Amino acid sequence: MTTRVTKAVIPAAGLGTRFLPATKAIPKEMIPLVDKPAIQYVVEEAVAVGLTDILIITGRNKSAIDDYFDRTPELERHLEAGSKKEELEQVQAIADLADIHFVRQGEARGLGHAVGVARRHVGDDPFAVLLGDDIMDPEVGVLAGMVRAFGERGSSVLAIRRVPQDQVCLYGSAAVEAVPGEESLVRIRDIVEKPDPAEAPSDLAVMGRYVLTPAIFDEIDRTVPGRGGEIQLTDAIRSLLAKQEVYGYTFSEGRFDVGNKLDYLRATVELALAREDLGPAFRGWLVDYLGRS
Ligand code: UTP
Question: What is the rounded CA–CA span in Å between residue 72 and residue 54?
Fold first, then answer.
């Protein structure tokens, strides 16, 4: 197995029940943050660290995702005729972002199952998993650090972050130990999906980004439905731990779960404020609005 990671898998077939009613008709990964759908930020993050072979796992009611990354000849002709050069370039750039492939998860049976659907495409290569509803600030460099760590160690790496005690039960929770000489990297000793607070190994939660060896696929095949009746990626990683080292890459900022309404609002505000074209005007309005309310 090579330790150079070039493939990314983006699971985007979940039902998005936390974002109803919008997700009744719109995939949550297509809900825009300012003017780009969430999944475009995720694809751009992957491309920025050299993951140019991207597989998006979609499902029923998710065809808007396939359409979005396709060419749009009619729209492009219209923009060209109207001399809308900037818009034309933007629209064309989306289809040229990367080598994007799609595969469908017939039924939303859980994140582990969704990753398992990628097996044929991924083959014997290592690959990154980026959740389609998790936005990470590329400036913080979490995925870049994970890919680098994978290159050095040849072992799976999970993004982990400390969370308040009352949120431990929402994530995979990891027991870890320090790795001598490493600041961001820890060794994962155990991992439990959405533990009851009394049984949580720690307040370190697994979040949205994974770089995995292909050995994970055999573990997924053996994984039975767990929390919520779903085939959990965390459970497959727990089995992998018995056979291979798995590392955690710790980070503390720059992540938004945009499948969660409050995080979605925070992400929208931060991204809008960071924009050169919209930021200054938006900031002025926001300060004024907060002063009045
Ligand atoms: P979530 O844990 O957010 O689950 O999935 P969900 O079902 O999409 O959303 P809620 O909890 O009902 O609101 C994390 C990521 O994994 C994908 C989702 O699309 C999301 O990007 N996923 C989840 C799948 O691709 N397939 C699944 O069976 C489950």
Answer: 20
Residue 12 Cα distances to 64, 168, 239, 288, angstroms:
11, 23, 24, 38
- The whole domain housing 203 covers 7-259
Q: Considering only CA atoms, which of 94, 110, 98, 127 is closest in space to residue 13?
A: 110
CA of 76 to the centre of ligand 1 (A): 33
The answer, as to whether pTM is greater than 0.85, is yes
**Helical spans, DSSP H, in the chain:** 38-48, 63-68, 73-81, 85-96, 111-116, 119-122, 142-153, 216-222, 233-241, 261-274, 279-292
Dihedral in degrees, nearest 10, Cα atoms 147, 130, 226, 221: -70
Residue pLDDT, tens place only, 30-76: 999 999 999 999 999 999 999 999 999 999 888 999 999 988 899 99
Residues with CB under 6 A from ligand 1: 11-19, 29, 57, 105, 108-111, 113-114, 131-133, 259
The total of structural domains in the chain comes to 2
CA 106–ligand 1 middle distance (angstroms): 14
In a domain, 1, yes or no: no
